[in-house]
Amino acid sequence: MPTKLPPVDVLLVGFGWTAAILGEELAQAGLEVLALERGQFRDTVPDFAMPQIQDELRYAVRHEMFQEPARQTITFRNNHAQTALPMRRLGSFNPGTGVGGAGVHWNGQHWRFLPSDFRQRSHVEERYGADFIPEGMTIQDWGVTYEELEPHFDRFEYLCGTSGVAGNLNGEITAQGNPFEGPRSRDYPNPPLERSLGTLLFDKAAREAGFHPFPAPASNTSRPYRNPLGVQMGKCTYCGYCEWFGCANYSKSTPQTTILPVLLNRSNFSLRTNCNVTRIKLDRSGKRATGAIYVDSSGEEHEQPADLVILSAYATHNVHLLLLSGIGEVYDPKTRSGTLGRNYAYQMVSGVDVFVEENLNPFMGAGALGQAIDDFNGDNFDHGPHGFIGGAYVALWTTGGRPILQHQLPQGTPEWGSAWKQAMAENYLRSASLSVHGSVMSYNDAHLDLDPTYRDAYGDPLMRLTFDFHDNERRMSRFVTARAEEIARAMRPRSYTVNQRQGPYSIVPYQTTHNTGGAVMGDDPSTSVVNRYLQHWDVPNLFVMGACVFPQNAGYNPTGTVGALTYWAAEAIKTRYLKNPGPLVDA
Amino acid sequence: MVPALTRRPGADGHFTDAERAFVDAATARIIPTDDTGAGAREAGVTQFIESQLAGDFGDAARWYMQGPFKDGTDEQGYQLPLTPAQLYSAAIRAVDQHCRDFFGGRVFADLDAEEQDEVLRGLEAGEPELGDVDSRSFFKMLRANTVEGFLSDPMYGGNQGFVGWRLIGFPGPRYDYTRFIGRHGEPFPLPPVGILGRDGFI
Q1: Does the interface ipTM go beyond 0.90?
Q2: Minimum-distance CB partner of A453 among B68, B178, B195
Q3: How far, CA to CA in Å, does A400 sit from each of A44, A245, A284, A370?
Q4: Domains of chain A by range and CATH?
Q5: Is A54 in Cβ contact with B173 (below 8 Å)?
Q6: What are the structural domain ranges in chain B?
Q7: What pTM does this model have?
């Protein structure tokens, strides 16, 4: 029997970005808040200190900051005819573990999804007709609009000290920013980062090709910044160790560098680390969460009662907990009934490597130091002649030049031997990559459920992922990659290599840690797990955060949108739910 | 002045003599010593790999290693029931046996460079059959670990004297490029530095 602990007002399961935001919002409102985190406590000092943090082998190659498959992983298959097998080591995506979650090891590429992304189905039907949506594609509206989220996007950017330049200020298009973005109520809190030579070459070439390049939004601070919580950040030093690493310099926006110095000092907030939640408990009615069961580092089980339970772990982990806890009807791809696990989506990334004459010094960089075009993202262009839905940005990022994983070699270079060595010597300083970061729509055959065979370190079934790319995404990716190739040609490189995404989806090569869906939001309880305020339809004192609520995935890094949704949900909880705990939307 | 430490990282005794000879010979073909300069041998790649295999990586400490083990598709990734240390050990035994059978009783380390390249090309292509060991998986791991040993921080035993970083022009992990980020196209003026300092040795 688990030991039953004294109750709290709010229980946060997982302690990354969404939990830090909610923790601060709800503790500030006077509630007693407890966060349970499966991993360790980590902070800038001592865990991310220089120079030990700048260790490519330890962090980027051996994955020290990420979820350990030995404890928890998924099983994977491309389709229902296959038997899912465990992802024995990380590959395609890298969920975090420990305080700050993946918010510690991200790059800081901080985007807003487009207004049309939030009305995906309605928008496509209005512009192209319902017949434009292919058979099997299950896209839907989010139930929340860009206009409703705008103040929350803004709030998250000011929390993070995001560096960029507005492209659309209250409807006025500016010359320097992204002309395709949704209207923003004010400019970014900080100006863009300094430019690398690579980004300038991209900018010139993209203009020559007729596109609209701009400095990509960066949650790496371009100057010293004090955020609205009073937390001080330092100016980025372009050390080139953002993604897969912690930041030693208080320059990358993370829970640690923006919220925790305030939150951890609140007497009505507490945090327990090395505590892995295995179940959300419901009362007999099945309509009310009573708390959670967790296992601590000594293997002991505890029951933590709470009035309000919020799932704030990584997207896939939140879905896994709902599945293990038996909350909601599991999606069945045969009958298309059930909502839990439905509409899993991902992203489709491709790229063009360019080998230039210039010395680019790739090792000087920052995780979100990049130049991008958004001309071919979302519905920023007429899809009518192309017949596919979705899009991608094209960007040249100068994130760093870590030698083991961040080098490009011309097509045809052998994998080893003198020719490989020669090519490394000739190209490391003089190459860059244009990345094509594309959307993936949702489909009735892509979903999450529990695996019948494999179990995790706690003895629970692993979650099973069934997913493959569809023709719509392949055509989208080919189209936008061809635009990237136009930019690459205009850079007048010595040579370039087009890397199309070929074959079935593979769990092996790293693509993006942008897994979405499985507990999607919406206006209709028959096609969503949570309502527009991220409140569970069946269990009103349970809220679910993170990218698992995205009904399909857009062509941007998700963190900006995840942060905005979290502030949006926090506002609904504070101003409405607490006054009258119950469903915020009638089912 | 701090005296240089003479002890190198590594796990003397993890490899058998035969395993060490194989890894030394194979990595020296994967990154050869040639006109472009020092290769895996000068970098200390063998001691790097030996030390990695003796630690958490060799034990697959972070990997999911519960059964049942089944052959999957390429898209499903590594499904062998072997840890990296076990894979090296089994594969080296099998490759040396294969070499004895086809090269007049000589093991891999005793072949000449061209013969060694031929064997490595075979492993890369998934030939020959090595019994329980998947030759392609082994080659992939050996090749990746060789590159890691050549290009990781010298404190792990490879990249001694920064030979890997010097070859490509990486100046090592540095705290602050504020003064340099705007000097487009200029060569970075400072020599490589490692996590433990400038020597690159511990």
Answers
A1: yes
A2: B68
A3: 20, 12, 54, 11
A4: 3-577 (3.50.50.60)
A5: yes
A6: 17-69+78-168
A7: 0.97
